[in-house]
Records
---
Amino acid sequence: MQIKTILNRIQKFKSFVYGAVRLVEGAPVPTLEVEIQPRSNSRPVCSGCGHKRPGYDRSPERLFEFIPMWGHKVFFRYAPRRVDCPCCGVRVEQMPWVSGKHRLTEAYSWYLAGWAKRLSWKEVAEAFRTTWDHVFCSVERAVIWGREHQDLSGVEAIGVDEIAWQRGHRYLTLVYQIDSHCKRLLWVGEKRTVRTLLRFFRWFGKEQSQALRFVCSDMWKPYLKVIARKAGNAIHILDRFHIMAHLSKAIDEVRAGEAKELKQKGYEPILTKTRWLLLKKPENLTETQDTKLSALLQYNLKSIRSYLLKEEFQLFWSYASPYWAGEFLDNWCTKTMRSKIEPMKKVARMLRRHRPLLLNWFRAKKQFSSGIVEGFNTKAKLTTRKAYGFRTYRAAEIALYHALGALPVPKTTHVFF
Ligand SMILES: [Zn+2]
């Protein structure tokens, strides 16, 4: 059987035929070249308007990289025809195996993009003996196509989240769809300002924004402002994940300050290596950690009192009625304000300020667990942190859409992997 026969099975073109297949002598890696010829009597299609036009001349042969096979790089070799188009002028013809001026065929590009969902971009480049740029370019093409073809109808619930990006305080704003039937990343924007989120709503469209029923977010002021203005019909929920994250951050601050203070005063370093004891959920502690925590609880330390306040706050989420949850919240805040622990007081003040939005969680019947946003947040951090070699915002953005966007891919007759 000839290689041509296989090619005709996996990817047949109506107006073109595969010609000779040859091994390239002296190539740095084993390489196969497959000739392509236009079918006789077929007329070229103008790449500008997509109409069949009379031929003008032929440009020099070009190579288009196809999916490698048996340790061989595979290239299509073809001399594109130029058309004389009454609308577009002299133009190169449309070739079904490639789009635009790309060097990689569509099939190979989608193939690399597919692998880039499972491996890091660097690993894909190594595995297929190609460059990081080719992998990036393939993923970018997949993302652009996917975003042009995604269906945005029926989005009723969104979650707004942020992640720190690179070192320092640079942020990305992420908007997720969190409906029970569909969870995916919808949009990524640089920074976390009013303008960032306004850009999301502009992209999402007025009609769709008005149709939103639930929006989950953190207590970040710019977000609150924009959501109130642009998604007026939605119940705005401050989700559990973000609130507990504020408490964890406060505890961390108290613990670090106190550990330093104790050290300066020459006390036993009882707080060293306790960071995770105080941040982890009690049920996730190991037995040794559990023993250590019990010992620690005997000291009347600010860190410990903060920890107990946070644990107590967990009860808030178990209420069924917004009324009683509100009562609990007020009591907890009063108690925390009396604690004289500044980072905790700061959280209490913030919770007080957002009391109505906090209680919306109960009005929404708790149908949005913190797990959705939290899960996405973890995955997003992992995606940007992985050694993809992100130096630019564009690369981070593309990686996030590719990993979390659940984007559609074109239907093809043959599946290459
Ligand atoms: Zn044309």
---
Amino acid sequence: MEYRPRCSRCGSERRVEVPQSVNVALAAEMKERICSGELFSWTCPHCGTVNLLQVPFLYHDPAEHLMILLSATPVSAEDVPEGYIGRRVRTVGELIEKIKIFDAGLDDLVIEMCKYVTCQELARDVALRFLRMDGADGEMTFAYPGRDEMELVALGFNVYEDCAGILRRNPQIRDSVRGLAAIDQHWLGRFFR
Ligand SMILES: [Zn+2]
């Protein structure tokens, strides 16, 4: 799909090609470009500014039975193929985070629960983002925007297990997930008012 975005700095127009969907089983090299954000970035030839293009995009990983729709606006998609996980994200950053969570073999509902309890513990409403899981003990690293730079928070895998337990004791949370669901802090917050 061809787009004609304008540079955020100098306003000059550029033709940019971004596919509307990628099946990573058929185009494995595209996954790198998605996860680095490069697929959605373009450099202005006039002023050198790197711009991010936020356009609708469908990520499809048939091996993981995973479909993630990038769309700034809600979509009415109740059905995903049988046995599939369907998600909707609003930004490229959220798309990359979801791919990292599923690639690590983790459950994104549990990850959102981890963020929720961590914010409560920090007594701050910060936008935590999953970065990675390391080593045999499964330590998870999250990032959030600090005053000048990104701050990191490390959580032990016991937090993940505790949060998985909270979801098991509250099955209505998981039962509410349908179609291309937007699983984020806003969604989870509805259950804890
Ligand atoms: Zn420019």
---
Amino acid sequence: MTASEAGVCRLGEFHPFQAGPRRFLYLVPAGAIFQLDDAAALIIDLLSGGDRPLYQLASDLVERGMPRGEAREVIGELLSAGVLINGQQPSVAAETPPAVFPLQTLVLNLTNQCNLSCQYCYEFGADKVATPEGKPKFMDFETGKASVDFLLKESAGRRTVHVTFFGGETLMNFPLLKQVVAYASEQAKAQDRRIDFSLTTNATLLTPAIIEFLSENRIGVTVSMDGPKEMHDRLRVFANGRGSYDIIEPKVRALVQNHRTRPITARVTLTSGVTEVVKIFRHLKQDLGFHEVGFAPVTTSPNQLYAINNHGMDRVLEQFHFLAEEYLAYALRGEMHGFTNVSDTLAELHQGVNKSHPCGAGLGLMGIGPSGDIAPCHRFVDSDTHALGHISKGIDRDKQADFLRRGHIGSKYDCHTCWARPLCAGGCHHEAFVRYGDTGHPNLHYCDWIRDWTGTCLRIYGAISASNPDFLERFAERRAS
Ligand code: SF4
Ligand code: SF4
């Protein structure tokens, strides 16, 4: 018996799941998916009854008819994959990104003004974090140019970078958007690099000329829209209380029909009373023709009238499951379904992400407000408390380090035993601030929901990878393009 065979063997940290008859493990410290064959499944079952020395595990397998050489080989493979542990558990925290991380995406809030008064808006509602008093309402070209220069400088080493235009209502500053697209394209070309663009809009100000410009310049568009008229108009209203559905519906149809260079997506905010996910999905996908439709529950403190209660969230999750099953059936036929919430999670599972932070905010992604303030992301722009510098002076590295230290999974002790942490990493910094007053606090109010949804997506991923792996390859290529 060798010294290592004398060591005690135990199960690594994983979340087991099943897709049809097949058994899988989600290996938490690696964020990887592992399909069990019969031998591996037998070992897992044996060790589920308790730890045992390696030599004994090998003997148990031999007793069950496995040749000794094969038993050693399988155990060795499972040890190197981290399914089994013989010694120290790997660290709970994903690797920390380098202190100076190259920027990939810059979100430009072209204005903090909006022509709608959606009651749940995080920019204007009761939960707002922005302090725009005394600052410009519209970004000017000098700030836009400086932002592009900042992005190209801070993204050194990346060939492709992204600019996302945001608001307020983005199109209220369309003249600047056009100027920035021209300037950024010229600068990127001079550096032999690629810059691509996207925007989020409420669609009220779309015109044929704007649609033509967006299509010609391959600008991706996300429309904030909450479903059919009776749902959309509950909260997405003008200042006089009138719903915006009738204004945007023909504009959205024209956008979907005439913007042919990039897929058009819809983003739905779910609120109390707007939780009919399947109905909303059908309307936006089938009636209006959006390419993808994504849903997010409203970000708010729980005492707001439009906050979704636990019962409402259960109802949402039930319908998410329904659409997820539909997604799976489509994928097995090699077809795209269009439910963004599944697509996004599948993409992360396929890449094997293991997040140190919940998202790119403050790392590969930053937001710039109309005043030129640098923020961790678009949701924090114009907030003095959260500013990470100013475009004229660059990033305040101390503030950035503090933001990233608090948001790191290693600082979120409640998450250390959670199997969903490679994907969740504690959840949105902005939501954490709104709920708990600290961007680094884990979003513990939705853990059950996150784990349930992650489990569903794992099962779908497992089923697709076993029955139609080509779909995942094509899906990954399409997402990367
Ligand atoms: S916030 Fe909850 S679900 Fe997310 S990683 Fe932490 S414990 Fe897990
Ligand atoms: S902090 Fe929240 S809103 Fe900002 S980029 Fe991250 S997930 Fe999105």
---
Amino acid sequence: MKAHILATTAIAFALAGCSTMQEGNVQSASDSSPAAAAVPEATGYFAQPSTLPFHAPDFTKIQDSDYKPAFEQAMAIHSAEIEAIKTNPEAPTFENTIVALETSGQMLNRVATVFFALTGANTNDTLDAVQAEMGPKLSQHSDAITLDPVLFERVKAVYDNRAAMSMTPEDAKLLEETYEQMVHAGALLTPAQKEQVKAINSSLSELTTEFSQKVREATVAGALVVEDPAELAGLSQSEIEAAAKLGVERGLPGKYVIALQNTTQQPLLPDMENRATREKLFMNSVHRADRGGANDTRTLLAEIAELRAKKAALFGQPDWASYVMYDRMAENPKTALDFMQQMVPALAATQRREAGMLNEQIRAEGGDFEVQPWDWYRYAEKVRKAKYDIDENAVKPYFEITSVLENGVFYAANKLYGLSFKKRTDLPVYHPDVTTYTVYDADGSELGIFYFDPYQRPSKRGGAWMSNFVEQSHLYGTKPVIYNVLNIPKAAEGEPQLVSFDNVNTMFHEFGHALHGFFADQKYASLSGTATARDFVEYPSQVNELWATYPEVLRNYAKHYQTGATIPAELIQKIEAAAKFNQGYDFGEVVEAALLDMKWHALTPQQAAAIDTPEEVDAFERQSLEELGLEVDLVPPRYRSSYFNHIFSSPAGYSAGYYSYLWTEMLDRDSRKWFLDNGGLTRANGDHYRKTVLSRGGTMNYFEMFQNFAGRQPDVTPMLEARGLVGNDPTAEPATSDGPLPPETTGDNAD
Ligand SMILES: [Zn+2]
């Protein structure tokens, strides 16, 4: 899917601010938190906030060798601060416990934010080594605090007294989050229950490790082996040579080996001319881990699902999904399942329609078979090339990077929110390619600092992300210092820096996260800006992509770098039409995976206990998808249960979380419709969105937030329309059965 906020930075923040700590393993905290009489005095660069404007990090003063001692010192200081909270002779109060926890670990936060920014965007061997060494220590440190029973007693005392306290809604939210996170980690369990959870965690840790090892081995063993290169007809010479080389490496000299990728579909399938080879490769993929024998994961995953259901029961929850979704917008599996089930009729109809189109293509080429999953992308690719092919080289000259940023991304932010931007050259950066801007609010006051780091380089990991060097907080008096990191290929020296349309979209997307951070208006850093639920955080960033193709914005930035001509409307229409192609498959396989994830994790312990054998696992998987009416034989899930690493390869992982991608897209598309229905790119619309959503951080119920913005609850229809699943094809079925569809939106191009 789209780019994401850097996970490790999120963890770094979580580690540094107790009230945003993530789920930890239930384990003894007795061997940590050295009781110190006083908080040790901090030394070195990170001891104090930066003295640069906005407390921006001073990269001229930080050495790679500073991080390890700074982490160690910062953790010791944090532990001493926690000890002081625990041993405070005064009765627990909101200030001396909850706020004290929130404000503890500030030095650790300063080290971690800078360190994880660099390990993501500009790492080296020294930083990698520090990360490998400090990672486990940071997570032990965080667990020791979340699981501290004495600390929890104080938190609980404040929480139990909440009805009698006078608090702002933000105070109340901070209290609730602090309490709930500790409860979620096991603070309320009896000693006997804690022992049971510990035993389950340790089994889960073993079983999920075993699952991921088996999937890895199954994926290696599932490679396609052929003897005659004629079977690989259609592949390029270099692909065939690579297959021969892999044969030698695998001890099969003279044979050709095609390794499996993680997903059900395999990238080389579209090019393979030999239908029997396609079928063999596909079958190897889809049955990699369910053929019996050592690499069969089915009984293992059934056991994982059952243990998770049992663990949830110890926490008083009906199923695992309810346990892990406590801090999500969707909150429970029923909401997520109902949401996905609404898409099924339109999706299944689109899958059948697309299959019909591909069958026509097959007939046209003289084939006398019906399309199967192993044929799908081969024929889809032919139809796409005939109808929707976009010549990147015709598009790119209109997208010069600085124009996209300043005349596109910044321009839209100016029209919507009144923001203005001024490039600055005085702030130190961690790489010469990074540029910085001061962001000014509509009234001319300074809002924050924006760092833009666009180019690919070996020291940067893949993808694109946003994060903060400094979080906005009224308590600290800090304004946001935000960076966007992307991986745009850098042009040769002297060449114009042109970017693809995908990159344009990513620039708008990441700046959408930045706006969420810049408009933060919170007292507490841990509730500020993008510190929101996993199934919410990608929503504002996706909404900002709307403006990339909005005519008024396009006219302002998408100008040919040589002629100055504005990009032709047909090119944009072509790009948008291509985005709706093959969605029955592309979107369908993701929805199916998300459904499987949620079905496995919505089982009660009794239901889970009834699924043991490989056959029962197969039957459950098939029934979960088929009873909804999905065309499972045409479009299998992106991952079948037996190799669904996202949800079964670590104790929690993304289990009961795969739906988040779809959920935020629903919020996004519905919000775009609101903007377009209400006049599009206007200050009134921008200010309304800022007031109701972008400035709210994680301080309130997300449904309430959406209601305040749109005046109603989110609706799935605009997403289905945007995906081309309803609304633009006479054969498409409506998404829901409650009445006629609203009039079709004119898409992102509406003026
Ligand atoms: Zn994102």
